[in-house]
Amino acid sequence: MGEYKFQSIKVYQLGLDYVDMIYNLxxxxxxxxxxxxxxxxxRSATSIVLNIAEGSTGQTDKELFRFxxxxxxxxxxxxxxxxxxxxxxxxxxxxxxxxxKIGKILFYWILNLQQxxxx
Length: 119
Prior knowledge:
- It is built from four helices and no strands.
- The protein has 119 residues and is mainly alpha-helical.
- It has a single domain, classed as 23S rRNA-intervening sequence (de novo design (two linked rop proteins), Up-down Bundle).
- α1 packs antiparallel against α2, α1 packs antiparallel against α4 and α2 runs antiparallel to α3.
């Protein structure tokens, strides 16, 4: 990887790791959630990296900032999805520790990148 600028950005790389973790979570869902919560969670996690990529190819920092804001919203959507997973007891709190930890790091990295653009 590395043909495009966004592929070398650390926050993009961490976003890819986060998407992989979300995909792994879905394997433990009951069959009836395969096309509901599972699908929504995967779409929102995927949206994070897609928005980082799309924003990085823009012409201005303002445009990148806008796409990072969308990526953050998508991240928050995954947090809500993970909360639902735990609440419905599809996975235990212990099963979700690592994805929550990586997600929080991703959240702060995106915020830090936004702050860098604003300064």
